[in-house]
Design a protein that fits this description.
Layout lengths: L21 H14 L3 H15 L4 H40 L11 H22 L1 H11 L1
């Protein structure tokens, strides 16, 4: 029979961390003061919290990346749909307002054209603010 193994105490491992960010140092000092512990102990606790929540498994990392990509794709699709709606609304308003005869710029029609452009921009902005349903109903009333 062998003799029982003596218990080995965990020895403290000493590391040096150089904090270059003054904000991080201030947060760490505030945490140490609030907890009533040394700066070293507060740093140890912060490291432990960070390591507990760190993504260690490569599958978890890949899953997180896939989620971020899916979110990005969803937001991009939404942004493109908004852009498409604005373009279609702008084209619709433009074709509704096109003059049937060429403009005579000398007779004050340039100012009238500028007013029409401003109305066109207002219609496009209204389309964005009200949404598609309200604008579709508005187009049915005018048409």
């Amino acid at each position: 029979m062998s003799a029982p193994r003596p218990k080995v105490k965990a020895s403290a491992t000493r590391i040096t961390v150089n904090l270059l960010d003054a904000r991080t140092r201030a947060i760490l000092e505030r945490e140490a003061k609030a907890a009533g512990v040394s700066l070293s102990r507060a740093a140890e606790r912060a490291l432990a919290r960070g390591l507990r929540t760190a993504v260690v498994d490569p599958e978890d990392w890949l899953l997180a990346l896939e989620r971020k990509l899916a979110d990005h794709m969803r937001l991009t699709a939404r942004d493109l749909a908004i852009g498409q709606e604005l373009t279609i609304g702008l084209a619709r308003a433009l074709y509704r307002r096109l003059p049937s005869e060429p403009l005579d710029l000398a007779s004050g029609q340039a100012e009238a054209a500028e007013i029409e452009v401003q109305k066109l921009l207002d219609d496009a902005a209204g389309h964005l603010i009200r949404g598609r349903d309200a604008t579709s109903a508005h187009a049915v009333e005018e048409g």
